[in-house]
Design goal:
four-stranded antiparallel beta sheet, 7 helices
Length: 242
């Protein structure tokens, strides 16, 4: 009965994930559901008569030869940990795997960009909202980022390196919304295609210095660039346009 329950739970979770019914759940919750599908069969295995006999034998070994029993327990625990970590990693990787096609970067000598500057500017409907609502409005597809201080630039007061990492999908166009006016100092790199394999450009607008855009002609997993500011850089959020 328990093995059937475990198989049914696992298949139901996999089917719901494949159909997209679990997209609204955080990734770690989906991982928990996958791992929980093993619970019935683990319980069945632990209460099976062979498992009970093994525990009785292990207890006897503990009393007779404690060193041997400790070594065997360490091996069992290590195997369980390796199996658990491997399962969680495979499930997490499957959840976060991009559904985009694996494109080969364009080999054309000229790079074509399409779109308009308005998509990088601050949406007027987001102005004046409470802080949490403003972030939701500005960045419905929010991206993770890290900041690191750089030496003082020659033409401004502060320089900061920002590293932007993608979520489920590769990045082509990204916009940074700040609390301070921002100027692009230098584009360091884009991963995996970078400066040598893709056309990279930044968009900074005279009418909106609180927003910066980044575009790439090839799919990227990470952007790295320098931003110069008159004050210490403070970011509201970073949004993936496409």
């Amino acid at each position: 009965m328990w093995p059937i329950a475990s198989f049914g739970f696992g298949q139901a979770t996999a089917l719901a994930d494949a159909k997209g019914y679990l997209k609204w759940l955080p990734g770690y919750v989906v991982v928990v559901l996958y791992v929980a599908s093993f619970a019935p069969i683990v319980y069945w295995s632990a209460t099976h008569e062979r498992a009970l006999r093994f525990r009785e034998w292990l207890l006897n070994e503990w009393n007779a030869n404690r060193r041997k029993a400790v070594g065997l327990l360490c091996v069992i625990v290590a195997l369980i940990l390796v199996a658990s970590v491997s399962t969680i990693y495979m499930v997490w990787s499957a959840i976060h795997k991009t559904r985009d096609a694996a494109y080969i970067p364009s080999t054309n000598k000229l790079t074509r960009f399409e779109g308009n500057v308005a998509q990088f500017s601050t949406p007027p409907q987001c102005t004046g909202l409470p802080e949490d609502k403003e972030r939701e409005c500005l960045c419905p597809r929010s991206l993770d980022y890290t900041l690191a201080a750089l030496p003082t630039p020659p033409d401004n007061n502060y320089a900061t390196q920002i590293n932007i990492t993608s979520g489920h999908e590769d990045m082509y166009r990204v916009v940074i919304y700040g609390r301070t006016t921002m100027y692009v100092g230098k584009v360091f790199d884009a991963i995996p295609n970078g400066l040598g394999k893709s056309g990279l450009s930044t968009v900074q607008m005279d009418f909106d210095r609180y927003a910066l855009g980044i575009t790439s002609s090839a799919p990227e997993r990470e952007f790295r660039l320098q931003i110069n500011t008159s004050e210490g850089l403070r970011i509201k959020c970073v949004n993936q346009i496409n």
